[in-house]
Amino acid sequence: MAAPPGMSSLPVITGLGFITSIGNDRPTVLRSLRELRHGFEPMEFFGNPNLPVKVAGTIKGFAFPTANWRDWTWPDKFAVDRELLRGLAPHGVYALCALQQALTDAGLEAAALTDGATGLFCASAGSPLLLGHFLDQMHATRGERGNPMGIVSSIAGTLNFNLAAHYKITGAVCGFVSACASSSHALGYAMDEIRLGRQQRMLVVGAEDMTAESIIAFSSLRALSHNPDPVTASRPFDVRRDGFVGTGGAVALIVEDAALARQRGAHIYAELAGWGQAGDGHSVAASHPEGAGLREAMRRALADARVNAAEIDYVNAHATSTVAGDRSEALALHGVFTANHAKPRISSTKALTGHGLSLAGAMEAAFCALAIEEQFIPGAAHLEETDPVCAGLDLPRTSLDEAPRLVLNNSSGFGGSNVCHVLRRPS
Amino acid sequence: MSSPVSPSVTQLPAASEQEARIKHLPAEARAAFQRFQTGGDTAGLDPVIFAILQDFIPLAPAVPLHEQPGTTRLIDELGFDSLSITEVVFFTEDLFGITITNEEIIQVRTLDDLRGFIHRKVAVRAKR
């Protein structure tokens, strides 16, 4: 039951599903976060040994060697119908598997999602692999041929098109496109749907392909690490960082009105206490040099959650391991925390997973929920020599057996979109 | 001013390309297609047609397609939709080097309609 008019409902997380480089189920992901096990493997993109990018956050158990779904494989434990497969991109397969997990985790049957009280917000950049394939086919046949599912399987929005139809969602359905802040936007606006009483339950899904087409596109931006060592290629906040390591996968979160969750006896991982966003107003691709937008987004999230900076126990930083981006975030963190004599634990789990682009925000929100649930703080993996700009920030080298009560999750995307969530231990 | 566009996709592709196109179909269908390629055996194409339908049908039928009555309707009884029909049409056009118009395919309602239609189209193509 939603809160009475005038009262805000409280959104809570009741289910999680993971298809990530550090695990395809909750226990494996949890172990990876606790023990700082990374998900990287050597990778030769496009079969080209001359490319300087040598490492990726691979998704184990899945393979998408061509654009033809007949060549795709995934773990047997997941059900992917032919009817659905024809409209999916590789990351759609990841997303379906993650959502199946999350629904099971939340104790929900598919039949419970169809009454209009459940909505679906998704985020991905679409599928460069499939889009390129279909455009090649269009050019080769001078427009005489096309796959009828070409559009719905490849463009940004493919996740919400497919999952909404498959699960017969009649509530709010939308896709979010703000690059690496996309699924953070999806989660933030999902919180609002609950708080405004428009929906009682939201499915939030972030996903990306893990293909050369998706990742190497960032090489021309000089955003990718050239470090061939999987153990050190992704090292946010380290002075020797040289770019991010790409990954894909999918994460699904089930967000419900707390009253409904309690009424049906659902397990609650965490409360979603607030969120905030702010633009840099600066550059199409680069972070603001002083982290202005991210600083303001953090402040707005804290204000929305009605908490002080000093109350935050852990920050899951956006830090992707790029030289400029990590510096920008460190300055933003100083502006919010150091300036207020606050010193939360800080780490970027991208040191383990790589950068999941549109997936990143939802993935890391789910990690934050796990940290709250399992009473630990993920360490700052691969950090050996901390960048002096981080002096005064608390970056623990190992995971800590500390139970965070309030957690902040940061995300930043192209165009200077910055989104932050505050998660709280259930009361 | 638009330039004239000659039909490109109805050219019969190379044999190796055709083999790659049907590599996922059952052996019986691949053998039937090879007989068609080498000897022009259009009468024996049913395994190919059933295999293509089986490949694109949205939900696998309880009874195999080749055991269903010829009067079985593609959309109402087998669950084909306009998208999967389009996939069948495109695949069939490319495999046999034929052209199927929307006006033609809209007349095809049953399994027998489709078999007869493809047989006629392919036979005309084979005589060229």
The poorly predicted ranges of chain A are none
CATH class division of chain B: Mainly Alpha
> What is the structural class of chain A?
alpha/beta
* Discrete helix count of chain B: 6
CATH T-level topology of chain B: Non-ribosomal Peptide Synthetase Peptidyl Carrier Protein, Chain A
CATH fold category name of the largest domain in chain A: Peroxisomal Thiolase, Chain A, domain 1
- Shape category of chain A: globular
How many discrete structural domains of chain A? 2
The CATH superfamily of chain B is identified as: ACP-like
Describe the structure.
The complex is a heterodimer of chains A (427) and B (128). Chain A is an alpha/beta fold and 427 residues long. Chain A folds into two domains: 11-263, Thiolase/Chalcone synthase (Peroxisomal Thiolase, Chain A, domain 1), CATH 3.40.47.10; 270-424, Peroxisomal Thiolase, Chain A, domain 1, CATH 3.40.47.10. In chain A, 30% of the residues lie in helices and 17% in strands. Chain A contains 13 helices and twelve strands. In chain A, the strands form two sheets. Chain A has a ten-stranded mixed beta sheet with strand order 5-4-6-7-1-8-12-11-9-10, with helices on both faces. A two-stranded antiparallel ribbon of chain A has the order 2-3. In chain A, helix 3 crosses helix 6 and helix 10 packs across helix 11. Chain A starts with 10 loop residues before the first strand and ends with a strand. Chain B has a single domain (15-127), classed as Non-ribosomal Peptide Synthetase Peptidyl Carrier Protein, Chain A (Orthogonal Bundle). In chain B, 52% of the residues lie in helices and 0% in strands. Chain B has six helices and no strands. By secondary structure, chain B is mainly α. The longest helix of chain B has 17 residues, at 111-127. The radius of gyration of chain B is 15 Å and the shape is globular. Chains A and B meet through loops of A and helix 4 of B.
